[in-house]
Amino acid sequence: MLHQPESDTLLAFAGLSRIVIVSDAWEPQVNGVVRTLRTIADELRAMGKIVEIIGPDRFNTIPMPSYPEIRLAVFPNRKLAKLIDEFAPDALHIATEGPLGMAARSYAHKRKIAFTTAFHTRFAEYLKARTGIPLWLSYAWLKRFHGTGSGLMVATQSLRDELIARGFKNVRAWSRGVDLSAFNAEPREDWNLPRPIFAYVGRVAVEKNLRAFLDLDLPGSKLVVGDGPQRKALEREYPNVHFAGARHGAELARAYAGADVFVFPSKTDTFGLVVLEALASGLPVAAYPVTGPKDILGESPVPVGALSEDLQQAALEALKIDRSHCRPHAETYSWTACTNRFLDNLVPTRTYA
Question: Residues of 128-154 as b/e, b for ≥16 C-beta within 10 angstroms?
């Protein structure tokens, strides 16, 4: 592992003005990783930092098998090295473990420079869901991938505890934030659906465990806002569910606020930005007691959601919660605080023999 000498740490952090972030997840993808990186970059620039995000949009790409909306860079090593060299960063952060992440890691090893990584996605669980590759094999690879970095950033305490138990080293806390100016309890979308409305917002993909929500016996209506590879199949399978498609900006904010309960059926997310967006929109949350929801909801002094292995019970309990409690809890999650923690976790790209 590459280490920064302790005597140089404070001076080095003060000089981190040029930051490069390498990510296989980037625009035009719509997901929590992209939203996080875009917002962090904007916040850093507002602090006077010079930030470069290198994503698949700069490379020749191919569609990801079974998920064509995601494009994977093809043989990116040489061009990526040129882009990083030309930018001459003070800090290198590798956000993902895909082709670009692997190329950036290889670059850092060849240059003998320090770097940080992040655990945004349960890559091992997603691979098992899509290909059947056993978890132990994927986690062994992930531990090797992150193990040579100088810090692995994770979003929640429960995930940090889990990764440490799996043998990951140098795990650093890094929470998330929510755009409180974009998401509000008003105005609300008039869905013209029977009440109460139980809503899901996010990618419509196998790893999101949507059938666990769609199979529930609930009063009123079920609403799905978002798009993804499972959407057409689920629309055919669940004709009584309202699929609204992807929403963005003010339309997305109204979509949240116009529902009565936000149901988050995923068991594999590492945080769940949509949970914060729902709370900021005054929407109580129903979820399984897993990493992400249990960390976010568990920090509130008053109920803002319900957690249960019985998702139907959680949804019905969430329906009883006072919506006015939700927004104040979301307001405790600041993107500025999130960005400051990210900056604190970075390490200088000093070269070592």
Answer: bbeeeeeeeebbeebeebbeebbbbbb
The per-residue pLDDT for 353 is 47
Q: Which two tokens stand for residue 346?
A: 């970075």
To the nearest 10 degrees (0 to 180), the angle between helices 273-280 and 32-46 is: 70
Which residues are 199's β-sheet partners? 223, 262
Q: What is the CATH number of domain 6-177+336-345?
A: 3.40.50.2000
User: HEC states along 15-38?
Assistant: CCCEEEEECCCCCCCCCHHHHHHH
Q: Report strand pairing: 305-307 vs 242-245.
A: unpaired
Residues constituting the chain:
353
Run of H or E residues at 135: helix 135-147
CA dist 286 and 304 (Å) reads 9
Which pLDDT score, from 0 to 100, does residue 351 have?
59
d(CA 10, CA 26): 31
Q: E strand or H helix at 118, and its extent?
A: strand 116-118
The answer regarding whether domain 197-330 maps to CATH 3.40.50.2000 reads yes
Where do the CATH 3.40.50.2000 domains begin and end in the chain?
A: 6-177+336-345, 197-330
Dist CA 80 CA 55 (whole Å): 10
Structure tokens at 28: 């035009």
Please tell me the distance from the alpha carbon of residue 220 to that of residue 319, in angstroms, as a whole number: 11
CA distances from 135 to 122, 125, 141, 142 (A): 10, 7, 10, 10
Q: How far is CA 339 from the centre of its chain?
A: 14
The CA distance from 74 to 341, in Å, is: 32
pLDDT, tens only, 294-308: 999 998 999 999 999
Q: What is the pLDDT, as a whole number, of residue 125?
A: 85
Question: What is the enclosing helix (H) or strand (E) of 91?
Answer: strand 91-94
Question: Which residues of the chain are under the pLDDT cut of 50?
Answer: 1-13, 353
